[in-house]
Amino acid sequence: MAERAAWAAEEIERLTAYDREHVWHPYGPMPAAQENHPVVAAHGVRLVLADGREPIDGMSSWWAAVHGYDHPVLNAAVTDQLGRMAHVMFGGLTHPPAVRLAELLVDLTPEPLTKVFFADSGSVAVEVGIKMALQYHRAQGRPERHRLLTVRGGYHGDTFADMSVCDPVNGMHHLFAGVLPQQVFAPPPPGGYDAEPDGAYLDGLASRVAEHAHEVAAIIAEPVVQGAGGMRFYAPAYLRALRDLADEHGLLLILDEIATGFGRSGAFWGADHAQVVPDIMCVGKALTGGYLTMAATLCTDEVARGISEGEGGGLMHGPTFMANPLAASVAAASLELLTGRDGRGRDWRSEVSAIESALRAGLADTIGLPGVRDTRVLGAIGVIETVEPVDVTAVQKVTMDHGVWLRPFRNLIYTMPPYISTPDEVARITTAMTAAARSL
């Protein structure tokens, strides 16, 4: 295809030069301190760069493109809906794609979660979840319960309420510490998915919750996997403890499943590892298979009824592009494809299990390497934690030389590959990660 042919060197330089001077990229300075690689197409698990290289995308475009790129089923969902309508406001109107997606989400989430609020992005979904908790307690005559409690090491998004519940020391938002709402933090759960629960930690957690329960509306956490806060895994027992403590003190439990949802951790929901059900659940990222931005916040009947009977008469939020028909159509198609409901026989559990096995085997040689603190795998997540912060540009050069695109941060070289990745493709990813670790 013409768009997959290498571009002229002069055009690549013009594009990258303009990008460097005028286009602001995530968590970076302006002008850019490093080159951003121009992508002109993508297919399967590969990105097509302007210079003709086709690296494997080991990031699933930040954990969203679980089906890979240019998937015919998802392409058809978008183009079919585009022929009907690209967008319509959701205030006072509804449409079949939104209703179908809501049906799927209610069916796929634990039974008490029956109400669906569509949002623009994962960050907004968490904002909505926090609003739900605050409005619920206010409606119940408890306006003093206006704070959130969480564990350190977490990441929940980049908007203001979200930043306030991200790790205040090691997170990305310490620059805003003086203006963010002051939330209540407990120590991070001890690491290790298979580790025995630490009784002293659980006692301290219980004391922390009891101390602040009178002013806390909800406990918020990422279930079992703390994503962008450090790619840490923790034992399901700690998540069960949070559920029990929320119940004991009359608090809501918000689970941020944006990174963990839809099978990434080896269970369909991160909460499934602990067999707990939240009062509010936030989903996003893989929801649309990486095609369009969309997220959702689900809650129980009790929460929805409490909010609706309160002074506001409803939830005080309403994005312009809420329930966008294009996004809702491709999201429904993505969920049907992922769960095999479209009749094509996909088995996400087998795919993720195969990736997990390949990641464990491929990263085994990094254990004990100089400069490597820990190597860990859970589901379709593989992490090399280094002793010192990595030189992102240098590490990316190593992995790109091996034909793999990764995006390390801080002291983490990690991968979350698309579920359709073959054993050979996962082996390419782990080979690149191992080479990067050896280069430290």
Protein model, in words:
The chain is of the alpha/beta class and 440 residues long. The chain folds into two domains: 155 residues, Alpha-Beta Complex (Aspartate Aminotransferase, domain 1), CATH 3.90.1150; 264 residues, Aspartate Aminotransferase, domain 2 (3-Layer(aba) Sandwich), CATH 3.40.640.10. 36% of the residues lie in helices and 16% in strands. It has 13 helices and 16 strands. It has a seven-stranded mixed beta sheet with strand order 4-12-11-10-7-5-6, sandwiched between helices. Strands 13-14-16 form a three-stranded antiparallel beta sheet, covered by helices on one side. Helix 4 packs parallel to helix 10, helix 5 crosses helix 9 and helix 7 packs parallel to helix 8. The longest helix is centred in the N-terminal third of the chain and has 18 residues.
